[in-house]
Amino acid sequence: MRIEQGNSLLRVKAANQSTILRTIYYLGPVKRADIAEQLELTLPTITTNVNSMISAGIVREVSIRDASQVRIGRKARLLEVVPEAYHFIGIESTGTHRCVSVVDYCGHPLYSHYDEQVCADYQRSMEETCQVVKNCLKHCRLRMEDISGVCFGLPGWVDREEGILRVHPRNRWSNKNICADFREITGYEGMVIVENNASARAIGAQFYRRREMENVQSFTYLLVDAGIACPLVVNNTNYIGSVVGAGEVGHMVMEVDGRQCICGNRGCLEAYSSDYAVIDRCYEEVQQGKAQKLKALCGQVKPEMFQIVEAQRRGDTDVTAIVEDAVKVLGTAVANIINFICPDQMLIDCKLFNIEKNQELLRREADKNLCNKTYRGTEFIFVDPDRTSGALGAAAVAINHALETYLTIE
Ligand SMILES: [Zn+2]
After folding, report:
1. CA of residue 69 to ligand 1 center, whole Å
2. 129-138 residue pLDDT tens
3. What pLDDT, in 10s, does the model give residues 360-371?
4. What is the pLDDT of residue 2?
5. What is the Cα–Cα distance from 327 to 358, expressed in whole angstroms?
């Protein structure tokens, strides 16, 4: 329902309801009394709201035996959300790959599809993505109308309010109305959100690692893919962080008049450390008859990142030199980012860090350039490269949005 301006009682009720649901969602299984204490609300307020959530099938009581890991008194009954209550779809489409995941209310993936046949033509790409979505739903025996929210994670400049992709850097798409086009092709009438894919991964990391990241006030998520982005997330109350911009650090200038970047400028971070830069430089070596171990893996065609990592593992010195160069520049960029914003944690999502000595090199280069006067210590976490993490991150954005806007007041 719509709440008219000035109807403050309804506003308070609505805010309470969604806050109570979020508390059950993130802390469950949890006692009613603990929710009341945490939110500074009365027990009757909690009970009324919880009862309506139970009858709506969103929240359930768990028996003491099910929640044996939680120490509780004999008679207390715990509350948790019902995983099957809602379903969401997360999509990541970067221009080089596409992943679609169907998840339940708790974010557990039910089915994921990954492919690298992404078409550069917008209309065709969108139609194909919608077809993939339908196929995924079929696997889960769900219909489009069973889905409570869809989120697209896309690289570049995204207008969240309008659901429009303003600029897709690689595919040169501009002002594409993702929400309207998805709805038109699929006939879907529910919530469709568009988010920058690095931001979606950051939100996803927080969502899926929430126990470990409970006390982390701020973190950045450095995503090295075709491009490089580093969104900053500041944790606010109620377990949902806010992304402060997509952190397009890829075009931070690392060398004055340096290498040519796709953006037209020179010396950008992406021209040294992005997947594209590393792949192009390795491919040049292969074409010149160097990087023999890589050539054995990729033949005459452009190598992929996993082949480059494997060639380095096998001791290809030409490949190693290129990778180390990319990691050094990235390490310097990492120091610049930390000097600028001092986050508690930096999550690093980059295929090159599958190799531990690349992680060490990054730390060394970052250390060298961190400002001793202001550095308060940032914890580095190397995220295991996972093909589905972008789509799952997008699904987490859709779930968070549904939790924030939960409303059943009649
Ligand atoms: Zn650039």
Report:
1. 51
2. 999 999 999 9
3. 999 999 999 988
4. 46
5. 7
Give residue 359 CA to ligand 1 midpoint distance, Å: 24
Q: Distance, CA 292 to ligand 1 centroid (Å)?
A: 30
Spacing, Cα 260 to ligand 1 middle (Å): 8
Residue 37 parent element (H or E): helix 32-39
Cα torsion for 197, 199, 200, 204, to the nearest 10°? 140
Local structure of residue 84 (DSSP, 8 states): G
At 310, which helix (H) or strand (E)? helix 305-313
d(CA 393, CA 91): 9
* Long-range CB contacts for residues 127-132, cutoff 8 Å, separation at least 24: 127/185, 129/91, 129/93, 129/98, 129/100, 130/182, 130/185, 130/186, 132/98, 132/100
Residue with tokens 């909690």: 46
User: 105 CA to middle of ligand 1, Å?
Assistant: 39
Helix (H, G, I), strand (E, B) or coil at 70: coil
Q: Are 153 and 197 in contact (CB under 8 A)?
A: yes
Residue 141 contacts by C-beta under 8 Å, 6 or more apart in sequence?
A: none
CA of 325 from ligand 1 middle (Å) equals 18
CA of 166 to the centre of ligand 1 (A): 17
First to last CA, the chain: 7
Q: How open is the CA angle 132-134-140, to the nearest 5 degrees?
A: 105
Instruction: Tell me if 394 sits within 8 A of 153, measured CB to CB.
Output: yes
Which amino acid would we find at residue 215? N
Rounded to the nearest 5 percent, the helix, strand and coil shares of the chain are 45, 20, 35
Q: What's the gap in Å between 249 CA and the centre of ligand 1?
A: 9
For residues 354 and 407, what is the distance between their CA atoms, to the nearest angstrom?
Answer: 43
Structural domains in the chain plus CATH codes: 8-81 (1.10.10.10), 85-204+390-404 (3.30.420.40), 248-343+351-384 (3.30.420.40)
Distance of CA 349 from the midpoint of ligand 1 (Å): 20
Q: What is the pTM assigned to this prediction?
A: 0.89
